Amino acid sequence: MDYRSSESYAGPRSEDTLPATATAAVKVVIVGGFGVGKTTLVGSVSEIRPLTTEETMTQAGVGVDDLAGIEQKTETTVAMDFGRISINDQLVLYLFGTPGQERFWFLWNGLFEGALGAVVLLDTRRMEVSYDVIGRLEERGVPFVVGVNAFPGAPRYPMSELRAAMDLDDSVPMIDCDARDRASCRDILMALMRYLYTLTTVSPEPQ
Amino acid sequence: MNGSRPDNEPGAEPPGNPDRLYILSTAETRARPRTHLDLVTLIVSRAEPDPGLQPEHAAVVRMCDFPLSVAEISAYLELPVSTLTPMLTELLSDGKVEARPPVPAAALPDVRILEAVMHGLQKL
Predict the structure, then answer these.
(1) Between 1.20.1250.20, 1.20.1440.20, 3.40.50.11270, 3.40.50.300, what CATH number should domain A23-201 receive?
(2) Do A182 and B124 touch (CB under 8 A)?
(3) Residue B78 zone, left/alpha/beta (φ > 0; ψ -120 to 50; rest)
(4) Which chain B residues are Cβ-neighbours of A200 within 8 angstroms?
(5) Which of A33, A126, B102, B105 has a 20 to 30 A CA-CA distance from B37?
(6) Where is this region: Disordered (chain B) (predicted)?
(7) From the list A6, A9, A25, which residue is nearest B42 (CB)?
(8) What's the pLDDT score for residue B28?
(9) pLDDT band for position B76 (cuts 50, 70, 90)
């Protein structure tokens, strides 16, 4: 890297640049276990090919989990894939996929700060990860919707059973989705926006 | 203040506390207030890359011709965000780039933002 000139850094392709009028961005976080379809979802709706940003897990971040099997002083690099949707000339929406396992929660501080909300992609093969994620989001007060990605070969359960297993409040939208399908991914983001809209406009009634 | 953590008080750390290690860079020592950089803060160049800049810094100035988020710059430079942030802080205080902060965080998002996003998603 020491020998790279500035020209050797690629930068965006001309079709991937934002208009000069872009003034502000918002973000939505897609959370789920490995292989649950986060990157697929991001890729389905993103106007750019999903990019990867990395963060290094330093010693300071280690306290959140027992890093069984990881030697002292090891730096772990965690990759987050993300995509982008230009909402209009001024506003840009970024979608970040982040792993749900507890040992990656150190990433969440910067990620959820200012985020509109989250989509939890439920992995019916590893429910416990989603269960922990949902608990953590509730603790942090992050509004979320749950998407059940229809995997070939994954166990299928009725929504009511999944909701009960996740201990999920009835008000939280839970919908089937196909992470490979653009319309389906748009629908789940739309469901999140509608849910946020409801939370924002309806004041809670005490009863 | 009652109940404040003793380690917040200057001089309260035990001598030789190994947790207190700082890396000083030119960016850290500047007097100007630091802009908080989010993953989706948009960075835009305000100058041509000058030949005196380090390659990574020059690359940032070059690629931010049009607005790019911190996350995108990190992806294109293949640098972790934690490595990129001090570089951007330096470029900001030197006036080489400007930062367009994300829509401010609130307990709940602004209805107008949500409406705009819904409208944008409908066009997908």
Answers:
(1) 3.40.50.300
(2) yes
(3) left
(4) 108-111, 114
(5) A33
(6) 1-20
(7) A25
(8) 43
(9) very high
